Amino acid sequence: MKLIPLFLLAGMLAVSGCAKKVLSLMKVDDRILIASSEFLPSEKIKYQVGKEYGWKMVLKNEVKTIKVTETLTLPGAPKTWGPEPVGSRKREISSDLKTCITTDVINPADGKTFSSYWSIAKGDPIGDYKVDVSINGKHIQTFNFNIYDSSLTN
Questions:
Q1: How far is residue 130 from each of residues 38, 74, 110, 154, measured CA to CA in Å?
Q2: Full-prediction pTM beyond 0.85?
Q3: Per-residue pLDDT tens over the stretch 17-72
Q4: Of the candidates 123, 129, 120, 127, the residue with the CA atom closest to the CA atom of residue 152
Q5: Which class for 114: exposed (0-12), middle (13-18), buried (19 or more C-beta within 10 A)?
Q6: Mean of pLDDT values over 86-115
Q7: Domains of the chain: residue spans and CATH
Q8: Cβ(97)–Cβ(82) below 8 Å
């Protein structure tokens, strides 16, 4: 697994905030985004080393900083979780090596937009994946999707 922080992209999900910056979900698309010539929502991703997938969100109101926690759970342990994160990004890997919890305090692009992307690496498992996203300690969205290898099907 390789984490690609891209907190500069426009979003497809919207989260509203009030004066105290309490966040609540306004719109949901429960499909993960996959890269092609553009990012498209999908529940299935063909296994291809280097293929990117991820999520994007946009806050209704501007904020200076938010704490984003992303929990990525795989069907099995990957060959690698990639290099250690840099800067304020923190990463914790579960003892069974199937779950990665990434936490970062970010400044959303334009005060509203943030995202996170991963890329498929050699040795990543085939099967059902799940990404849970929390903002400022509040669970916002769960994305369930499947990475499949078409060469394994008849």
A1: 22, 7, 28, 26
A2: no
A3: 333 344 433 334 556 666 656 677 888 999 999 998 888 888 877 888 999 999 99
A4: 127
A5: buried
A6: 91
A7: 2-147 (2.60.40.1930)
A8: no
CA 129 vs CA 10, 72, 76, 132, 145: distances in Å: 24, 7, 9, 10, 5
DSSP string of 61-94?
S--S-EEEEEEEE-SS--S---SPP-TT-EEEE-
AA identity, residue 110: D
Residue 103 burial (CB count, 10 A)? 16
pLDDT for 22? 45
The two three-digit tokens of residue 100, written as one number:
């990665």
